[in-house]
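Hi R.,

Here's the chain you asked about this morning:
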Amino acid sequence: MTLGFRDHQVFLNYPFDEGFEPFAQAMHFAVVSSNLIPVCAKDVTSPDQLRLEALVNAILSCQYSLHDFSLLKGEGKLNFARLNMSLEMGMGLFHALQTQRRSHRCAFFVASPHEYQIAASDLAGLDPLSYNGDEASLVASVYEWLRDVAQNPLTTRVSTHEIKQRYEDFKQKAKNVIGSGNGGRLSHNESQEVMFQVCSEHRLWDWRENKAGQIAFPSVPLSWRKI
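And the predicted structure, written out as tokens:
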């Protein structure tokens, strides 16, 4: 999160479950391919700051926020539902409404177009974007929403079809990286570095083209597989 880039930052709110990781990557990639800057809870965690305070500051530091409501059902032996996503969605929605959507715009995404109404009926009428559990559909939905809402000359203006192709390029390139996580899985920063590289190669993300951007977004070293 970089304070000087507030108008170009997008807060992403989604479950950190391992099974959701492909969809998390899809959301991040759609933001990067829009020539915007993704921010999530993993970017703002600090040992000397309350997590809730850090999240509030992160949302206030972003012009946009995107919230995924896919995992709303109870789970585990105690059948508890996940509430973190709902809490962060409430923060973003309040910020948007309080400023009459001038300082913040938000959208939320669901895997199914109807189930969310049972868990959060107050959101009825906000037209959630459904992606039916498909990564490519989620990439398209996020990219198209940002393209339509982010009226900024710096944002990307290419076809959704091209963005989907570049997402496939990212997935192929990511397979050639040995991640620092368990079993060679890519860390959050490593995955995002691959996105930056792919989108920079295709002139979709240009924040490293000057000295200020290189300082704000330093490259993350990657370990490549020998082919």
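Residues 3-156 form a domain with the Rossmann fold fold (CATH 3.40.50.10140).

Let me know if you need anything else.
M.
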